[in-house]
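PROTEIN DATA CARD
Card holder: Large ribosomal subunit protein uL18
Chain length: 117
Origin: Sphingomonas tabacisoli
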Amino acid sequence: MAKLSLFAKRRQRVRTALRARAGARPRLSIHRSGRHIYAQVIDDEAGRTLAAASTLDKDGKGKTGATSEAAASVGKRIAEKATAAGVKSVVFDRGGFLFHGRVKALADAAREGGLEF
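Structure generated from the sequence above:
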């Protein structure tokens, strides 16, 4: 078995704790890379993705790349897609990333878009 990095251990620990406290709520999971940011609303009970958005989407309206503005537009789009799928309340899974910068911008925009967490 491969040894997990400290970041992978933290991500696993956070995700396990969220699943224990989530109840029946889906999980808003994010991943941040050096160039892009990705967001998914995942139903862990059914094991499927309900909505997804990223800076790679064609409907990004020119806001691509690793900026807070691009993360905010991803947050708005994920909120729109989640509400269209019938999801209003989620659990925020920051994926081990610190809650500042692009992660915070995405979360704030998703809250403004109508998601509750």
